[in-house]
Design a protein that fits this description.
By secondary structure, this protein is an alpha+beta fold. The chain is built from ten helices and twelve strands. The structure holds zinc ion (ZN).
Length: about 400
């Protein structure tokens, strides 16, 4: 009797050993022919695909909270749960590091009168919405339309910030959609090469990350599609599960009322069509990467799209908006898991401005542009990295980050 299973079946009480649970999905390496054992292509392909199938049912850290820690949030249509990450948790610290490091490595000043912001300001000031604005809000937004002119406010820029709170969002419907997309993507990424069936190379390595490394927040990247062994996964304290190939944590900044809608119903890339109000027949205006939901790997860029909750202006440092304690008001941005998958890279000469939400080259999942810092903006290059998805299932809004600009 040489192995556990045999001794287990002898029935002898003294000799009884419990067989360890069988690992259903062997790692790819162990499938190579060893000791004269032949493996077949279909076995290798099956193992490669099997390895790709292991998508965690939920982020492991969700279960680190007591069920009673979660607060149910009732949205206008759907509900979801939220819980505050403890400030002394590794997850909280890593998110703070990611934000601070991306701001210091990639500080950002928006171009004056940037289209996306001006459009949002005009929407606020439109006949149907302006009734909801206070006189101060109206005045500040009207000034904002003259951004960069003499006597008008400067374009928003990144500032040193203090993270006051990180809310984790658990939204069952959104998670199921996202996890399904990840699973399908992982299944799709195999090819037959000289070593047999292997996972396809992760093309995300072509991205020049703002932080210098992929934004994983505690998750160790598995550069092949093969999941990390359990021992390594335990190192991933934040999410408990490594982000898979094609996934990254990215920021999104917008108005506070829209952030509520994102937490409830996810991103809606098809709403990003901006009609040219001056000539309604003209084609709608999209950003550099086309129509869709935009993300950044530097918090500094996303923070130029959210608003002061008091005066509704961008980048507000006004004394009149300070809290009774003398702090700047708390603002919010979203940090999401995004499945960039196999990106279509937009370049300086090949922008995707004209492409609507239904347009993507075959086999591509997202649109990515590596930032060109010294390039002339007028030619369509973006200074910072930009990321775009056209399908709502490709992003999961996982964290609502509450922050305020430090008084510098
Ligand atoms: Zn303000």
């Amino acid at each position: 009797m040489t192995h556990d299973f045999a001794s287990h079946t002898t029935g002898s009480k003294t000799n009884r050993r419990i067989a360890p649970p069988r690992v259903e999905v062997p790692e790819t390496q162990s499938l190579r022919g060893e000791g004269g054992r032949q493996t077949h292509e279909w076995q290798q392909a099956g193992a490669a695909v099997g390895g790709l199938l292991r998508v965690p049912s939920v982020p492991a850290y969700w279960n680190a909270f007591e069920p009673s820690n979660w607060t149910m949030r009732q949205g206008t249509e759907d509900s979801y749960y939220s819980v505050d990450l403890p400030k002394d948790s590794p997850a909280f610290r890593q998110i703070v590091d990611y934000i601070q490091e991306s701001i210091s490595r990639a500080p950002y000043t928006s171009p004056a009168k940037e289209d996306a912001r001006m459009q949002a300001v005009r929407e606020d000031l439109s006949l149907e919405n302006r009734q909801r604005l206070t006189p101060i809000q109206r005045k500040k937004l009207e000034q904002r339309l003259r951004e960069g002119d003499a006597g008008a406010p400067s374009p928003p820029r990144s500032r040193n910030v203090e993270i006051t709170r990180v809310e984790c969002i658990a939204n069952e419907a959104l998670w199921e959609r996202y996890a399904t997309a990840v699973q399908l993507y992982r299944q799709s990424r195999v090819r037959k090469g000289k070593n047999g069936w292997t996972p396809r190379r992760d093309t995300m390595k072509l991205i020049k990350w703002a932080r210098g490394e992929p934004p994983l927040i505690g998750a160790r990247k598995s550069w092949s599609n093969v999941p990390l062994p359990e021992s390594r996964m335990r190192e991933c304290r934040l999410t408990g599960d490594p982000l898979g190939p094609g996934e990254a944590y990215l920021f999104h900044g917008t108005r506070p009322e829209i952030i509520d809608l994102i937490m409830e119903g996810g991103f809606k890339p098809w709403l990003a069509a901006r009609q040219n109000k001056n000539s309604p027949e003209a084609p709608p205006k999209y950003g550099l990467l086309g129509q869709g939901a935009y993300f950044a790997d530097s918090a500094s860029k996303s923070m130029t799209y959210d608003r002061c909750v008091v005066c509704r202006d961008y980048d507000c440092v006004d004394a009149s908006c300070l809290t009774p304690e003398g702090d700047r008001p708390v603002r919010q941005i979203v940090l999401s898991r995004v499945l960039l998958g196999n990106p279509d890279f937009a370049t300086f000469y090949r922008s995707r401005r004209a492409q609507g939400v239904g347009v993507l080259p075959d086999g591509r999942t997202s649109v990515v542009s590596n930032g060109l810092r010294q390039a002339p903006f007028s030619l369509g290059a973006s200074m910072m990295n930009e990321f775009l998805i056209k399908d709502r299932v490709l992003a999961y809004p996982e964290f609502r980050i509450h922050y305020r600009a430090r008084k510098d």
